[in-house]
Design the sequence.
C-alpha cells in the first residue's frame, strides 16, 4: 500500500511539471508585448524603443527561455502569479479566493454523478433487458448527448423563471449550487450509468458469481455482496476522467449561472485579454485535477485489495 | 454482417443532417446572413418556417447552414488527432524504453489537464476562430488514439511472426503498421465516432462562450449564444439550433454504440458449451 | 418419483445461436443413484458440464431447459427460485471448475466460506469458525487460520481448489457435483485433487457426480460411468466393467486415447446433427443404417446401456 502511494506520488511530479510548462508556454504565446503592457500600467502610454528595451531587461524577458521558466515557476510556487492587467489585483490571491467555489461545485457534481450514475446503472443491470432497462438506457443516452449549455438555459427558464424554485445566478446559499452542479453532472451521469450497467453485468457473468449462486445466495445477494464491489473497479478508474470533464466544464456552467469560481474568472479575463489570469487558471485547474486524481487512485486501492496488497501492476 | 433496423434509422437521420448541411446553399430559402430589419423576431410563418431572429434573419436558413462548419471541424480535427495519436502510439510501442517513457509522460500531462480547460485557454490566448478550435480539439483528443495504438503495437511486437517477416528482409516498421492497423481498426472506428460526437459538442460549447466560431457565422452554438436572452419572446431561436446539436450528438453516440456491439459480436462469435 | 437419487428425464438444453438454437444436451435420461460416485465423462463440448449445471439450474437466462429432474420429490427444473436457493449449497453443492476464478477476488476467503454457513448451517460464531478450520485442515491445509484473512489471488491454485471444496462442504449437503476439478491442472495438482475428492467421498459425502474429461480420475473414483458424446449419452455402466470392456465405438476410441495406452487422438468432432447416430461421421464401424437412423438404448449385459446398433 505504501509502495503504491509513493509510486502514485512520484508519477504526479512530472505531470505537475508538464502542466506548469504548458501554462508557461501559453503565457509566452499570448499576443502583445508584456514589456509594453507593463509600461502602460505605469502610465507610459507611448514608450520609446529604449524604454521598452530597459523594461524587457528588468522583467527578465531577455534571459534564455528555460531561465525565464525557472523564475516564473519560482514565483508561481510562492503564490505569485502576477497581477491582473485590468485592476492590478494579485492573480494568485484572487484564484485562491475563488477556488473553493469551483471545487465545491465540481465535487457536488461528482457526487451527483456517482449517486445517480451508480444507482441508475445498478437498476439497469438488475432489470436487464426489461422495459425499465430500456427507458433508463434512453435517459442515459439523452443525458450524455445533450449540450450542457443548452440544458442550462432550459433549467434556468424552468426552475428559476417559471417555477421560482431556485435562484438564477450567483452563490447565495447551497440552493445556488443545486442547478449548476446537476447540469454539470448530466453527461457524466449518463456515462457512469452505462458503464456501471455494463461492468455489473460482466461481473454477474463471471465464474465467481456463478459459484456464489451455487452456494445458495439469491441473485440480489450475488449482485450486492459479490459483483457490485468488483464492478466498481472500472468505474472508479474512470471517475478521475469524469472529474476532469466536470472541472473543465465547470467554466461553462459558471459563466451561464454567474458562479464566481475560477472558470468564470478565466472567461472574464479572456474577454478583457488578461492573459496572466488564463495562465494561472490553467495552473490551478491542472493542480486541482492532479490532486483529486491522486485521491481517487488511493480510493481505488481501497476497493481493489489486489493493489492494496501487491502494490499493483497497473 | 447484419445491421439492425434501428442502426439504419440512425444512419438515415445522420445522412439527412449531413446532407441538408452540405446542400444548404441550394436548399436554404434565404441567405443565412441577409438582414431584414422590417421583420425582427417574427414567429413561424409561411415565409419563415422557423421565424426570424433579432436581425430579421431567417432562422431555418441559418439552422441549415449552422452545422456545416462545426461538423467539418469535428471530422477534420478528429482525423488529425487520429493521425497524430496513431503515429505517437506506434512509435512509443515500437521503440519502447526511453522514448516510450517520454511519450507516456507527455500523454499523461495532456490527460492531467481537463480538456475543456485547455480548449478555453488556447482559444483565449489565440483568440476564437477555426485555427484555434482545430488546435485545441487535436491537442485534447489525440491521447485516446495513441493509447490504443501503443497497446496494440506492443502486443504485435511480442508476436513471433514479426521476427519471421523481418528475417525475410521487410522493413520492420512498415510491418508493424501493417499488422497493427487491422487489429485495432474496429476499436479505432468506435473511438473515432465517439470523439467526433464530443468534438461537435465542444465546438458548440466554445462557440456559445464566444471562443469558437464567431458571429455572424451561421452556427448552432453561436445562434444559441446570440438568442440566449430572447428565450421568453422567441424560444425557437434557442430550441431549433440546440435540437440540431442534440440530435446530431445523440445519433453519433448511438452509432458508436452500434459499432461497438458489432465489434463485440465479431470478437467472441465462437460459442462453446 | 422421489428419494435421494437424482433422476433426470428427457433433458434437452439449448442455447440461442446465430441461426436458431445450438443443442448442448439432447434428450438425456439418466439416474444418479445416491451413495456412490457417478462419473460423467466426455470431451469438452460434449455437454457434460451443461448437464451438471442444469441440476442446480445455473445455466443462465439464455439457456432453454426442457425435461425433468427429480430430487426428493421435487422437479428441480420447475422449482421456484426460493426453493432452489435452499437446495443449492444446502442439499446439492458444487465444486466448480477453475478454482482461481471461482472465488471473489475482492472478498476475504473466510467471509466467502462463512457465507455458506450463514445460509445453510446452524453453526454460528466461534462454532462455525472452528468447523471451517477443521474442514480446511481435513482437506490438507497446514495453517487454516491464515486462510480466512487472505484473498484468492494470494493463494496457489491447489490451495484455492481446497477452499472451494471446503466451501461446497460447509453447507453439509447430501450431494456434491464436482465440475471438471482437474481441468487445466498439472500432474501434481491433479493428484492433490484426487486425494481431496477421495477424502470427501469417504468421510463426508457419499453421493457425488464427477464431471470430468480426466479418464484416469474417473476410473479411480467412480462406481458408475456415463459417457457423453455431442450432447448424447452413448454408454453407461459400472466403472470397472466399462473401463475393462468399453462397448460403444466412441468409448473405445476415447479410452484408447489415454496416454497409458499410447495416444490415439480422436479426430475433431464434426458437428452435423443429421438424422443418424451422432458418432456416424467419425465411427470406424459405421454402417449404412447408422447414418439413417438414430440408435436406441440397448442393454447387452446387466447394468450396461449402450446407444449403438452393434448391440441391437
Sequence:
Amino acid at each position: 500500500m505504501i509502495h503504491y502511494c509513493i509510486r502514485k506520488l512520484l508519477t504526479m511530479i512530472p505531470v505537475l511539471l508538464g502542466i506548469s510548462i504548458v501554462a508557461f508556454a501559453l503565457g509566452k504565446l499570448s499576443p502583445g508585448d508584456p514589456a509594453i503592457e507593463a509600461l502602460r500600467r505605469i502610465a507610459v502610454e507611448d514608450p520609446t524603443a529604449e524604454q521598452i528595451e530597459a523594461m524587457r531587461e528588468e522583467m527578465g524577458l531577455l534571459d534564455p527561455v528555460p531561465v525565464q521558466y525557472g523564475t516564473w515557476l519560482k514565483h508561481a510556487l510562492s503564490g505569485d502569479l502576477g497581477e491582473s492587467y485590468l485592476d492590478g489585483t494579485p492573480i494568485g490571491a484572487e484564484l485562491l479566493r475563488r477556488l473553493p467555489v469551483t471545487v465545491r461545485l465540481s465535487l457536488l457534481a461528482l457526487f451527483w454523478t456517482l449517486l445517480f450514475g451508480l444507482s441508475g446503472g445498478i437498476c439497469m443491470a438488475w432489470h436487464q433487458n426489461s422495459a425499465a432497462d430500456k427507458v433508463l438506457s434512453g435517459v442515459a443516452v439523452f443525458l450524455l448527448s445533450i449540450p450542457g449549455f443548452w440544458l442550462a438555459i432550459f433549467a434556468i427558464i424552468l426552475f428559476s423563471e417559471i417555477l421560482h424554485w431556485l435562484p438564477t445566478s450567483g452563490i447565495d446559499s447551497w440552493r445556488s449550487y443545486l442547478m449548476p452542479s446537476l447540469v454539470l453532472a448530466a453527461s457524466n451521469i449518463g456515462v457512469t450509468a452505462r458503464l456501471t450497467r455494463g461492468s455489473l453485468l460482466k461481473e454477474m457473468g463471471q465464474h465467481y458469481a456463478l459459484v456464489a449462486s451455487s452456494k445458495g445466495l439469491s441473485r440480489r445477494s450475488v449482485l450486492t455482496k459479490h459483483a457490485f464491489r468488483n464492478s466498481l473497479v472500472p468505474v472508479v478508474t474512470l471517475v478521475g476522467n469524469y472529474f476532469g470533464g466536470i472541472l473543465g466544464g465547470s467554466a461553462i456552467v459558471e459563466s451561464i449561472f454567474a458562479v464566481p469560481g475560477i472558470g468564470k474568472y478565466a472567461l472574464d479575463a479572456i474577454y478583457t485579454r488578461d492573459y496572466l489570469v488564463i495562465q494561472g487558471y490553467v495552473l490551478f485547474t491542472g493542480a486541482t485535477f492532479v490532486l483529486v486524481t491522486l485521491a481517487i487512485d488511493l480510493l481505488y486501492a481501497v476497493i481493489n485489495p489486489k493493489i492494496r496488497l501487491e502494490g499493483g501492476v497497473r | 454482417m447484419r445491421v439492425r433496423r434501428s442502426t439504419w434509422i440512425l444512419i438515415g437521420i445522420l445522412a439527412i443532417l449531413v446532407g441538408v448541411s452540405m446542400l444548404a446553399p441550394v436548399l436554404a430559402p434565404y441567405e443565412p446572413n441577409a438582414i431584414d430589419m422590417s421583420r425582427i423576431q417574427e414567429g413561424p410563418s409561411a415565409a419563415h418556417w422557423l421565424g426570424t431572429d433579432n436581425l430579421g434573419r431567417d432562422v431555418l436558413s441559418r439552422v441549415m447552414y449552422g452545422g456545416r462548419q462545426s461538423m467539418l471541424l469535428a471530422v477534420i480535427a478528429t482525423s488529425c488527432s487520429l493521425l497524430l495519436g496513431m503515429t505517437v502510439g506506434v512509435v512509443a510501442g515500437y521503440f519502447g524504453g526511453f522514448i516510450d517513457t517520454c511519450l507516456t509522460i507527455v500523454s499523461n500531462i495532456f490527460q492531467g489537464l481537463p480538456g475543456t480547460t485547455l480548449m478555453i485557454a488556447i482559444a483565449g490566448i489565440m483568440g476564437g476562430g477555426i485555427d484555434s478550435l482545430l488546435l485545441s480539439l487535436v491537442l485534447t483528443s489525440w491521447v485516446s488514439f495513441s493509447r490504443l495504438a501503443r497497446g496494440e503495437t506492443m502486443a504485435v511486437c511480442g508476436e513471433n511472426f514479426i521476427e519471421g517477416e523481418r528475417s525475410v528482409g521487410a522493413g520492420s516498421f512498415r510491418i508493424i503498421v501493417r499488422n497493427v492497423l487491422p487489429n485495432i481498426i474496429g476499436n479505432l472506428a468506435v473511438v473515432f465516432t465517439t470523439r467526433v460526437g464530443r468534438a461537435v459538442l465542444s465546438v458548440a460549447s466554445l462557440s456559445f462562450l464566444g471562443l469558437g466560431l464567431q458571429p455572424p457565422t451561421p452556427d448552432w452554438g453561436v445562434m444559441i449564444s446570440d438568442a440566449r436572452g430572447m428565450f421568453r419572446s422567441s424560444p425557437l431561436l434557442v430550441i431549433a439550433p440546440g435540437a440540431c446539436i442534440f440530435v446530431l450528438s445523440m445519433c453519433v453516440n448511438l452509432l458508436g454504440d452500434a459499432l461497438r456491439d458489432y465489434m463485440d459480436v465479431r470478437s467472441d462469435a465462437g460459442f462453446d458449451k | 418419483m422421489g428419494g435421494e437419487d437424482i433422476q433426470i428425464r428427457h433433458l434437452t438444453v439449448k442455447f440461442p445461436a446465430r441461426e436458431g438454437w445450438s443443442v448442448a444436451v439432447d434428450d438425456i435420461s439418466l439416474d444418479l443413484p445416491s451413495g456412490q460416485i457417478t462419473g460423467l465423462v466426455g470431451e469438452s463440448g460434449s455437454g457434460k458440464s451443461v448437464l451438471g449445471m442444469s441440476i442446480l439450474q445455473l445455466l443462465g437466462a439464455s439457456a432453454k431447459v426442457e425435461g425433468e429432474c427429480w430430487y426428493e420429490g421435487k422437479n428441480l427444473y420447475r422449482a421456484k427460485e426460493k426453493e432452489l436457493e435452499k437446495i443449492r449449497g444446502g442439499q446439492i453443492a458444487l465444486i466448480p471448475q477453475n478454482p482461481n476464478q471461482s472465488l471473489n477476488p475482492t472478498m476475504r476467503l473466510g467471509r466467502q466460506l462463512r457465507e455458506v454457513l450463514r445460509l445453510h448451517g446452524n453453526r454460528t460464531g466461534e462454532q462455525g469458525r472452528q468447523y471451517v478450520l477443521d474442514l480446511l485442515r481435513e482437506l490438507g491445509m497446514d495453517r487454516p487460520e491464515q486462510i480466512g484473512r487472505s484473498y484468492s489471488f494470494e493463494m496457489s491454485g491447489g490451495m484455492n481448489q481446497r477452499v472451494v471444496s471446503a466451501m461446497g462442504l460447509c453447507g453439509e449437503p447430501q450431494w456434491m457435483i464436482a465440475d471438471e476439478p482437474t481441468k487445466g491442472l498439472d500432474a501434481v495438482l491433479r493428484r492433490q485433487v484426487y486425494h481431496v475428492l477421495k477424502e470427501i467421498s469417504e468421510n463426508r459425502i457419499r453421493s457425488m457426480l464427477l464431471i470430468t474429461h480426466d479418464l484416469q480420475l474417473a476410473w479411480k473414483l467412480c462406481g458408475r460411468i456415463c459417457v457423453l458424446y455431442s450432447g448424447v449419452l452413448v454408454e453407461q455402466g459400472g466403472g470397472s466393467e466399462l473401463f475393462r470392456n468399453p462397448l460403444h465405438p466412441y468409448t473405445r476410441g476415447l479410452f484408447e486415447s489415454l496416454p497409458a495406452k499410447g495416444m490415439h487422438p480422436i479426430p475433431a468432432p464434426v458437428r452435423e446433427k443429421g438424422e443418424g447416430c451422432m458418432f456416424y461421421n467419425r465411427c470406424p464401424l459405421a454402417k449404412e443404417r447408422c447414418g439413417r437412423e438414430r440408435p436406441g438404448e440397448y442393454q447387452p449385459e446387466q447394468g450396461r446401456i449402450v446407444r449403438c446398433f452393434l448391440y441391437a
